[in-house]
Amino acid sequence: MQGIHTIFGAGQVGTQLASILAAQGLRVRLVRRSAPGPRLPGVTWMQGDATDRSFADEACRGASVVYNCANPPDYGHWEGVLQPLYRAVREAAGRAGARLVQLDCLYMYGKPPVSPFDERTPHQPCRDKGRLREELFEELYEAHRRGDVQATSGHASDYFGPATPNAMLLRPDVYERILAGRTLYVLSDPDVPHGYSYTPDVARGLAVLGERPEAVGRPWHLPLASASTSRELLERFAARAGTTIKVRRVPLWALRTVGVFSSLVSAIADMSYQWDVPYVPDDGDFRRTFGIGPTPLDEAIDATLADHRATKAAA
Ligand SMILES: NC(=O)c1ccc[n+]([C@@H]2O[C@H](COP(=O)([O-])OP(=O)(O)OC[C@H]3O[C@@H](n4cnc5c(N)ncnc54)[C@H](OP(=O)(O)O)[C@@H]3O)[C@@H](O)[C@H]2O)c1
């Protein structure tokens, strides 16, 4: 879609999305509060806070599509931070007359009664974070129905990919241990099927939702890279790296004990229920409608490990 494409949030997905859109010849603004990052061809950095109404309006001026890839920096502290952030982006997109593409998660489903679960599976949030995401999800589509904004949302599962420091399982420290063939200590049950999303697929999926007319007015599960168990995925990483690893689970009681002193660990323990039951989003609607699936898994793993090696070599 011609016009300016404004992305709020230059994190794990927003930055990749900016490069994808700029490579299509689109004009891209990439927004965050901290200082601008490295130069990206075709991308204009804007520094400011989305919750500042006049700044958000300036960031969205002339935009045809606004993507919300922002997230509060503290996983242990969403209440009172997430709502104003998401409402501010939604309202600024509405005032600009732009389409809003919301990057979202799966927390609103709670413990899904079936797996794979699709976009029609009832939302039964079972934790505070899920209830918060459900509230914002409902607000988004109510605003769409009222005609305040043309909205769509792309829902991803837990991330892996280049530069995923905030992922639940596959982070740079874990890539490092895989490359070294060391034991991995995971914070949840490794032997239950669980979906993982490859961040370049997530970014590409959002670009599609920003472009295609039929994307508007409903949520979409973005292409899913892996639907096996966490252990199988970690072992596949190790096989591609040419190493052998052991996977051990940190017991929940230990997490809860540390969680008394750390709001981050407490929040992780609270959300570990997602690995208690099979938890695989069905991305069939997206694949059938847009004809796009995920990157082949081994290709995604190789690119992730190559990026980790390159980042380490450059440090
Ligand atoms: N992490 C996962 O595994 C995962 C999986 C599935 C879905 N998701 C969802 O994906 C979405 C994005 O999360 P993420 O983990 O990709 O984000 P992230 O990497 O943590 O990046 C968040 C970005 O938002 C910016 N930001 C935060 N507050 C802002 C504000 N007030 N104004 C402007 N920019 C602001 C941050 O920069 P500054 O701090 O400099 O402003 C940062 O660039 C969230 O909805 C999340 O729930 C995450």
Write up what this structure looks like.
This protein is an alpha/beta fold and 315 residues long. Helix 8 packs antiparallel against helix 9. The two termini are 37 Å apart. The longest helix has 19 residues. The protein contains eleven helices and eleven strands. The chain has a seven-stranded parallel beta sheet with strand order 3-2-1-4-5-6-10, sandwiched between helices. The chain has a domain of 200 residues: NAD(P)-binding Rossmann-like Domain (Rossmann fold, 3-Layer(aba) Sandwich). The mean pLDDT is 96. The relative contact order is 0.14. The chain is globular and about 50 Å long. The site of NADP nicotinamide-adenine-dinucleotide phosphate (NAP) has 28 residues, from strand 2, strand 5 and strand 7.
- SS class: alpha/beta
CATH class of the domain at 4-157 and 197-225 and 278-294: Alpha Beta
Report the span from N to C terminus: 37 Å
Q: Fraction of residues in helices?
A: 40-55%
**Gyration radius, in Å:** 19 Å
Summed over residues and divided by their number, the pLDDT gives a mean of 96
Principal-axes shape call? globular
- For CATH, the homologous superfamily of the domain at 4-157 and 197-225 and 278-294 is named as NAD(P)-binding Rossmann-like Domain
Strand content: 15-25%
Low-confidence stretches: none
Oligomer: single chain
**Largest beta sheet: strand ordering:** 3-2-1-4-5-6-10
**Do you know the CATH topology of the domain at 4-157 and 197-225 and 278-294?**
Rossmann fold
> Mind telling me which CATH architecture of the domain at 4-157 and 197-225 and 278-294 this is?
3-Layer(aba) Sandwich
- Annotation field: number of helices: 11
Summarize the main sheet.
7 strands, parallel
Number of beta strands: 11
Order of H and E elements: EHEEHEHEHEEHEEHEHEHHHH
- List the ions, cofactors and other small molecules found in this model: NADP nicotinamide-adenine-dinucleotide phosphate
